[in-house]
Design goal:
Elements lengths: L1 E6 L10 H10 L7 E5 L8 H11 L7 E4 L10 H6 L3 H6 L6 E4 L3 E6 L15 H12 L6 E6 L18 H10 L4 E4 L6 E4 L14 E4 L17 E8 L2 E10 L4 E11 L20 H7 L1
Amino acid sequence: MLNILHISDLHFGPPYVPRVGQALLDIAPALQPDVIVVSGDLTQRAKENQFRDAAEYLSHLPPVPRVVIPGNHDVPLLRVVERFKDPHGLYRKYISEELNQVLRLDEAVIVGLDSTAPRSAITNGRLTKKQLDFCSRAFADAPPGAIRIVVAHHHFAPAPDYLHDQTMPKARRAIERFVDLGVDMILGGHLHRAYIGNSLDFYPGNHRDKGIIIVQSGTSTSRRGRGREREKNSFNLVQVEGNRIRITHYMFFDNLHRFAPLSQHLFARAGGELIVDPSHSARLQVPDESSSAEMA
């Protein structure tokens, strides 16, 4: 089994909530992640002290391979000269030199893409043809049976609540390329609320049997949650075992002072069959009825 801890939108700076951040650090080892994915917006305003704090925080997560990509908040918004001349300077200094990266494991190939577009589409982001070609090369030598995952900060499909979110420009072009490449799953953030769905809901494409699972994380450690996750915090645990993918959505509960599982989703990989063993199926219980009412 491959366990992927998917967190996003930490927003170090004024929106960061220390007690929630600590709760995430507390639960992370118990989840036994093999990989940690951070899908952007580590900072609120791309300031040096915010990047320094974010880097320090990441160092306390379990020491496993990770894929970390920038979000639009990780490039300076109001420091216009810096945004045009060296938009990722501080990100490269404190987080990673690589903006687009590939993590290769026996069980998975995970491609992280920098969807920020500091000089053109700072809010909605963008992926270039060059980046899609980068994906093609990354997956070309994927081990047989390895799950193929793309990570990008900006979303390719709207959330079900439709809070006036504009999808990434040319998202359809990217999805069609990912389908052709056999991508199983896309992990993202940006929306500050979680949802789990399938690309076929929005982009039917030419391969009706090859939809891509879309997994969005809410803001894991800030007070900038939106919609049903207003002022709430969440992350996802993705577990891959054979042809089965299990995604558990975790929420922070104030009454418990910790994260707890809220929902669970099972998928079969493309071309596979979903076989559920009742003796091993998990039953998720909302920790408290009052918390459940808040989520209704």
